[in-house]
């Protein structure tokens, strides 16, 4: 845009300069034809008198100079315009490279945040539960291996271990769902978000109106942003109700907004869930905005290119 404006301004300036050049060309042409109409032996020009015998030669020379000036102005306009457009193109390429670096850094950061989350969930959840299962089975084995086997106690311990194993499997499934939701690939964003809403402990009003499918990266970014926002609403905001709106926007954008009526005060902390959402959205070429004043409500908006 600035290059186009500068080119138009240059054209206007050169157009003003061209006016006297055209006028001079017309005067030179008239002077070259002076022998056909002159009544005297000289032809008067502004500031000088030209003998009629010399008028054709002087007029032709002036006409050539005027035409050369017009061609020079046209060439000058072309050279300057190309230089402006080239610099604008270079600036655009630099900006695209900077945006690409930002998205790449966001993708790396999102992967690091996700790895840290998985590591924390395994360490704090599944790992101690599996350790407990192993200890419980060890106790059951002792009950059966003693001089007086206690089958009833061993049976009770095995049942306890079975219950803990089922809980561990459930946690692993939830963890796998946090890494990737297969329903998102199979049935699309609407169905995937409906599954998230069905598992939410906070009542959620879901309003998804999208035509067709977007790219996998775009849908995944919106899916995980909504999931994280609903998780925060339940764990930290003490919300009683949430609303999720997803739309296609002009310009090929996939837009989502999650709002809760909780206590507010949410912030993006390094390594936290919202930090991961921001980097994941940035890696998809989108933007993320959090509005969470103390006292609420909290609103998270994400917008990503549908084709990403």
UniProtKB/TrEMBL annotation:
One of its GO terms (cellular component) is membrane. InterPro entries: HATPase_C_sf, Sensor_HK_TwoCompSys, Sig_transdc_His_kin_sub3_dim/P. The chain crosses the membrane at residues 52-76. Residues 114-182 form the Signal transduction histidine kinase subgroup 3 dimerisation and phosphoacceptor domain. Keywords: ATP-binding, Kinase, Membrane, Nucleotide-binding, Phosphoprotein, Transferase, Transmembrane, Transmembrane helix, Two-component regulatory system. GO terms for molecular function: ATP binding; phosphorelay sensor kinase activity; protein dimerization activity. It catalyses: ATP + protein L-histidine = ADP + protein N-phospho-L-histidine. Its EC number is 2.7.13.3. PANTHER family: NITRATE/NITRITE SENSOR PROTEIN NARX-RELATED (PTHR24421), NITRATE_NITRITE SENSOR PROTEIN NARQ (PTHR24421:SF10). This is histidine kinase. It comes from Pseudokineococcus marinus.
């Amino acid at each position: 845009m600035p290059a186009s404006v500068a080119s138009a301004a240059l054209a206007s300036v050169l157009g003003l300069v061209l006016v006297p050049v055209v006028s001079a060309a017309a005067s030179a042409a008239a002077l070259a034809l002076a022998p056909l109409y002159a009544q005297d032996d000289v032809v008067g020009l502004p500031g000088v008198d030209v003998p009629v015998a010399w008028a054709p030669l002087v007029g032709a020379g002036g006409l050539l100079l005027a035409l050369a000036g017009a061609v020079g102005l046209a060439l000058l306009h072309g050279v300057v315009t190309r230089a402006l457009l080239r610099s604008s193109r270079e600036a655009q390429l630099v900006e695209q490279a900077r945006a690409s670096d930002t998205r790449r850094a966001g993708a790396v950061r999102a992967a690091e945040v996700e790895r840290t989350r998985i590591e924390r969930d395994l360490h704090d959840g599944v790992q101690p539960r599996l350790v407990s299962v192993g200890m419980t089975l060890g106790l059951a084995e002792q009950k059966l291996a003693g001089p007086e086997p206690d089958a009833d106690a061993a049976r009770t311990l095995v049942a306890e271990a079975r219950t803990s194993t089922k809980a561990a499997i459930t946690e692993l499934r939830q963890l796998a769902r946090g890494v990737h939701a297969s329903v998102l690939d199979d049935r699309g964003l609407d169905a995937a978000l409906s599954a998230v809403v069905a598992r939410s402990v906070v009542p959620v009003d879901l309003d998804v109106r999208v035509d067709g499918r977007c790219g996998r990266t775009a849908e995944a970014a919106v899916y995980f942003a909504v999931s994280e926002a609903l998780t925060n609403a339940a764990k930290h905001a003490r919300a009683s109700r949430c609303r999720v709106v997803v739309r296609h926007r002009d310009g090929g954008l996939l837009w989502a907004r999650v709002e809760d009526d909780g206590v507010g005060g949410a912030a993006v902390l390094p390594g936290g869930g919202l930090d991961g959402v921001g980097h994941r959205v940035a890696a998809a070429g989108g933007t993320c905005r959090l509005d969470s004043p103390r006292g609420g409500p909290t609103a998270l908006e994400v917008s990503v290119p549908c084709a990403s």
